[in-house]
Specification:
This protein has about 350 residues and is mainly beta. The protein contains one helix and 28 strands. About 5% of the residues lie in helices and about 50% in strands.
């Protein structure tokens, strides 16, 4: 089990045209995102936090698979503090729907829930009689409709994919036997199409694969190795899934990729977060940049390069939080918009 968890940890670290007969989502006119943030930086008292989720600027969470007593870091609007919960170990996944409805993925296929006052075990999941599941991510539309994704080890210590779906108070393990690797992201698009990312594989463990899931089948849309400039990822911005395909950012409409931005910089690190199509944050090898629908500008530069990256973000109307990991420190960059335009 220790070997497998190390593989999971390494895997996570390394890591069109419109048609009139389609259900087309036409967003409201997006406004360019502002860049006049005032930044503050907090140093967490542990350097192994890998996930971030928040319900508000005064309720921000980070989780760690490392030391038990530092499993959680929490921000209450004024201060950060860390703690552990008895029975909860090796935390990666965290997601919630309100400050009193938060879920994490723990050790051996466990899902725990925070009700606003205490953490309690919500489920203990297995697949093929295997209880060594590590959940990498949790995402969903409501507390009665969400997914937990990850992997468990085969006899050689590599990753068998896991996708667990919770609906109508029941858990179902989706058939993911044709996949192989760690399922790191799963999102539902505005048109109810489901997209997911699997990293690793039988032939190339250092690769990323993007799939569409439909009626029990997985259709590979994109695949590439982790070489700088070729990595892939997906994220949800508003109600639409955005695809990072090397140095291109795209959406998918009418079953085709529609490129919305070419990032013409060798420093692009193939990870994005955003509020809308004109308010997108881009991870760079040397800092954080921003696209406002017209151009890309840096918001801040890292103190140390190489070796620094961003593992998580939480975006609100006037506040943004980024979990920045330096080689020996975890930092929280908090940007705040004070002035009205």
């Amino acid at each position: 089990m220790k070997i497998f968890l190390n593989l999971i940890f390494i895997t996570i670290i390394i890591y069109a045209a419109f048609s009139c007969d389609e259900n087309i989502y036409i967003p409201s006119e997006d406004q360019p995102g502002r860049r006049d943030y005032e930044w503050s930086v907090d140093t967490l008292d542990y350097n192994n936090y890998l996930r971030m989720w928040a319900s508000s600027p005064t309720d921000v969470w980070c989780t760690s698979p490392g030391e038990w007593e530092k499993s959680f870091a929490h921000f209450n609007g004024e201060n950060w503090f860390s703690f552990g919960v008895p029975g909860l170990f090796n935390l990666f996944a965290i997601y919630g729907f309100s400050s009193n409805d938060v879920y994490v993925g723990g050790d051996n296929g466990s899902i725990w829930r925070f009700d606003g006052s205490s953490w309690k075990q919500f489920a203990q999941l297995t697949k093929n009689a295997h209880n060594g599941i590590t959940f990498s991510r949790i995402w969903g539309e409501s507390s009665n409709s969400f997914y937990a994704t990850g992997a468990y080890p085969d006899e050689y210590g590599y990753n068998n994919s896991v996708i667990a779906q919770y609906t109508d108070r029941k858990w179902e393990m989706l058939n993911s036997n044709e996949l192989y690797g760690l399922v790191t992201h799963l999102y539902k698009n505005f048109d109810n199409r489901i997209y997911l990312v699997v990293i690793g594989g039988r032939e190339f463990t250092d690769s990323t694969h993007i799939y569409e899931y439909s009626q029990g089948k997985y259709y590979k849309l994109y695949s590439n190795i982790w070489t700088q400039g070729l990595q892939a990822d997906i994220t949800l911005i508003g109600r639409e899934v955005y695809f990072v395909l090397g140095n291109q950012i795209a959406v998918r409409r009418s079953s085709k990729f529609q490129i919305i931005l070419n990032v013409n910089s060798p420093n692009f690190y193939q990870r994005i977060w955003g509020r809308n199509s004109k308010d997108i944050f881009l991870l760079m090898t040397d800092g954080l940049a921003h696209y406002n629908g017209d151009n890309i500008e840096y918001l801040f530069y890292f103190n140390k390069v190489p070796g620094t990256q961003i593992f998580g973000a939480a975006l609100f109307e006037k506040d943004v939080f980024f979990l920045v990991s330096e080689p020996t420190l975890n930092l929280i960059y908090h940007g705040k918009l004070y002035k009205e335009e």
